[in-house]
Amino acid sequence: MTDRREQSGGADYAVRLENLQKIYKMGNNEVRALDGVSATFEKGSFWAIMGPSGSGKSTMLNLLGCLDRPTAGKYYLDGRDVSKLDDDDLSDIRLKYLGFIFQSFNLIPQLTVEENIALPLYYLGWSASERTSRAQELAALVGLEKRLRHRPTELSGGQQQRVAIARALSNDPVFLLADEPTGNLDSVNSLEIIELLTKLNREGKTIIMVTHEPHIAAHASKRLYMMDGKIQKVEG
Amino acid sequence: MMTPGRFFRDVQLGVKNLLLHKLRSFLTMLGLVFGVGSVIAMLAVGEGASEVALEQIRKLGSRNIIVTAQKPAEEQGASNVRSFISIYGLLYQDEQRLQGTIPTVKRIVPVKIIQKEGRLKNRSLEMRVVGTNEHWFDLVQRPLIAGRVLTKLDIDEKSSVAVLTEHGARRLLASEGVIGETLRLGSNYYEVVGIVQSESATEGAMQTPDQMTDAYIPLTAAREHIGDYFTQNKSGSRVRELVELHQLIIEVDSEENVEATAGAIERMLATFHKKKDYSINVPLTLLRQAEATKRTFNIVLGAIAGISLLVGGIGIMNIMLASVTERTREIGIRRAIGAKQRQIIAQFLIETVVLSFTGGLFGIGLGLLIPWLIEKIVGMPTIVRMSSLVLSLGISVTVGIVFGIYPAMRAAALDPIEALRHE
After folding, report:
1. Domain span at residue A169?
2. Quick check: is A58 in a domain?
3. N or C: which terminus of chain A has fewer CB atoms within 10 Å of its end residue's CB?
4. What is the model's pLDDT at position B234?
């Protein structure tokens, strides 16, 4: 079993961005998708990143999620500089320190709820019995302990998103990164999900959520507005 | 870092994924199943056929040289008009000369062949009477069923004794009690002293020295009783022939000397025979030729096998590429969660290897079934060699790896962000 908790890098922040830039070259044109963003996301905080399309929030999300590398600037994740890592090391960072929640849930349809929840643990090298007990624990946390053997397609959207949240929590990440987590849900399920996230935050989880819906963003403790690749303002 | 347990889990995952699309996986394998199956079957048929040929040649004896009398071509038509007797074939002198002059010759079996009607009590049978010496039974080894074979004493004494073949004995007298009975061949009488097994195999294949219904008598007796003139009725006209010996089976002291000795015999016979009224067969040369043919055959088979497995491999690659496209999103999810590129490669590669290995196993099943059916239905001998099974399974798995690596690398090279966006 791989060490589960080499977790805390000892920093008092989850994420610190210093003059982060992402520039795409398109022919002779430069597109400054992210143009010098500096921010600190404290541990235990609940952030909402907002902005119209083209404001750079998707780029921000990809960088925060270690799916992409910045052109310039620094990204510290719990004290580790991750801005210059190669693909393998970034994969490792995602595996150990990040938890993704997507708009379209992104569960693997062929796997059961239990297997979906435990998927990161599979790559962390946990044994089958360890994975099962952890998946059961997390399923109970999101209220799906009776659905472990089901396939994602047999569940409602809200339930699927709860499976995704359980999966995101499985590796006990430094922060949860949620991309429009309620975007594909009706209002009742949206509320359920945002309340679940709020509850997790109260229990100490750091959450960074990208959304364009103000009433969803209202649940976060802090809101960051983006415009043209720059931070426009910070609330809360 | 790949522990056995981890590997086993990855294989399990691969099998599970393949079982999700049972029909597709099966169809993907089919190319390899038939490829492997046909390779094994073809090799089995080839082995079987060449083994029959090789066995025939081995029966002739790898240290033997067989010189056979042959009516010269020009003699067959025209000369019959002038003289009604054709004189050809090997001479008693030839035997003496060969025996005395070529040191590598170990022993010589002279053979005189006469077609005669054999009579035993009230049964009769058209037989091939073989006048020979005691060495025949050493060089043409057949199991003795009853009694004894001819001895040197029989030859020296010109004894009127005969050894029958099992087949001939059965047809003359359907019992084993034929020993001691009197066999009439033409106008002479012989005591039956023994019965040997006859070579019952395969007509039309390589000629063996013995035949189904032979009667072996001492050459000395044959000379005295029957002589060297033969009269045959051929399509209405009588053909007279003078042939002293029909065959000389010459045993050489060792295999290395066979070819040189054959050359020496050839030169000697050419010196004393004006016409080429004989032919020389060297089983060892035939054996070598047969083995060379077999090798060529195997190379051709190998090429065909290569092509069929290549086609199977392309089929696998095609399906795996489709599978990668279809599972782009899954790949994106796995990558986002933290799977490394090499883990994605391993996942897809394991799937193709599982496919090709399973296909290879099914192919072996097919490769065992087809030769079995061929033997049952067509009656052709087949030999499935263990090495052909191992080889084709190995090639099948190799094909899986070679053709699986590209789709797997394509899967791993996908940009996770793009892959996640894929619908």
Report:
1. 14-235
2. yes
3. N
4. 60
B224 and B320 assigned to the same domain: no
pLDDT computed for residue B417 by the predictor: 92
Domain boundary among B276, B305, B327: B276
Examine the domain organization and report whether B79 and B207 are in the same domain: yes
Q: Domain count for chain A, please give it.
A: 1
pLDDT of B84 reads 65
Task: ipTM value, please give it.
Answer: 0.93
Q: Among candidates B78, B80, B108, which has minimal Cα distance to B95? A: B108
Q: Which domain holds residue B209?
A: 71-276
pTM: 0.72
My answer on whether B297 and B333 are in the same domain is yes
Which of B20, B337, B420 is nearest residue A123 as measured by Cβ atoms? B337
Asked if A114 and A166 count as a contact pair (C-beta separation under 8 A), the reply is no
Q: Hey, how many other C-beta atoms are within 10 angstroms of the C-beta on B319?
A: 21
How many CB contacts within 8 angstroms connect chain A with chain B?
A: 59
Measured between beta carbons, the chain A residues lying within 8 angstroms of B336 are: 65, 67, 94, 100, 106
| Residues B106, B171 within the same domain | yes
Measured between CA atoms, how close is B311 to chain A, in angstroms? 30
Which amino acid would we find at residue B134? E
Q: Dump pLDDT digits (tens) for B350-390.
A: 999 999 999 999 999 999 999 999 999 988 889 998 988 99
Distance between CA atoms of residues A212 and A219, nearest Å: 13
Shortest distance between the Cα of B17 and any Cα of chain A, in A, equals 8
